[in-house]
Amino acid sequence: MAINRKDKLLNTAFGVYISGLLLAPIVLIILPTDFFDNGKSMCISVILLDRNCYGCGMTRAIQHLIHLEFKIALEYNKLSIIVFPLLTIIWFNELKRNYKKFKSRT
User: Fold this and answer.
1) For range 64-69, the mean pLDDT
2) Helices H, strands E: what count in the chain?
3) Cβ–Cβ under 8 Å, residues 77 and 57
């Protein structure tokens, strides 16, 4: 059975997506712990209303959790203790789902 051009393109797209899923945590581990600590907030509630929302500080907190700095992570956002394991589960499920799709196409 010959693979047509569209299937080849789809296989390449799946491969790139799976590679991106695998590289994302590696990049976050390699980045310095305080990489996201500086700079202006991009949160819409901070910009428009000058108030923090429940997600404010989550990126910084997750980055500190990845580097096992629990105290600092909790200072940025206490919900990160719940969000990080959920993100990890979602990441594994997405990786597994797309890997199965990729394998079934080849």
Assistant:
1) 95
2) 5, 0
3) yes
| Nearest-angstrom CA–CA distance, 27 and 40 | 22
Share of the chain above pLDDT 70, in %: 95
Residue 10 CA to residue 8 CA, distance in Å, equals 5
Evaluate if pTM is beyond 0.85.
Answer: no
Vertex 55 angle, CA 51 and 58, to 5°? 120
Domain ranges of the chain: 5-105
User: 74-81 long-range CB contacts below 8 Å, 24 or more apart?
Assistant: 79/54, 79/55
Q: What is the pLDDT of residues 6-53, one digit of tens each?
A: 878 887 888 888 889 999 999 999 999 989 988 887 888 888 998 988
H-helix or E-strand spanning residue 71: helix 70-76
Q: Which residues touch 68 (CB under 8 Å, ≥6 apart)?
A: none
What is the C-alpha radius of gyration for the chain, rounded to an integer number of angstroms? 18
The pair of three-digit structure tokens given for residue 21, joined into one six-digit string: 């899923």
